[in-house]
Fold this sequence. Notes:
Structural class: mainly beta
Shape: globular
Order of helices and strands: EEEEEEEEEEE
Amino acid sequence: VQLQASGGGLVQAGGSLRLSCAATGRTFSTYGMGWFRQAPGKEREFVAAIDWLGGSTYYIDPVKGRFTISRDNAKNTVYLQMNNLKPEDTAVYYCAAASVSRTVVSESGYDFWGQGTLVTVSS
């Protein structure tokens, strides 16, 4: 599986962005998918995950109610809708695929990674 993330950019606090992650491979629909982020000077952290059907999702507390992860298996794409963005959301965002169907929280549980897209939120 190869992953290509896009949709990052510069936005003011309170604004919105939608990240996309396009995957190649016929088995995309069987993978659990996730989004991670790495802020400057910090370690990469888990943000959100979704299971293979999109029926189960998981978020870290700082983004609950503001971010929504979703997927379109017909398009081999997973999305991260980010609303009410805050300066602390500034980071490089990575999508990842896990060779299991359920939601996966641990970074070590992911097998494939995209190249990251930069999100900058100005105050």
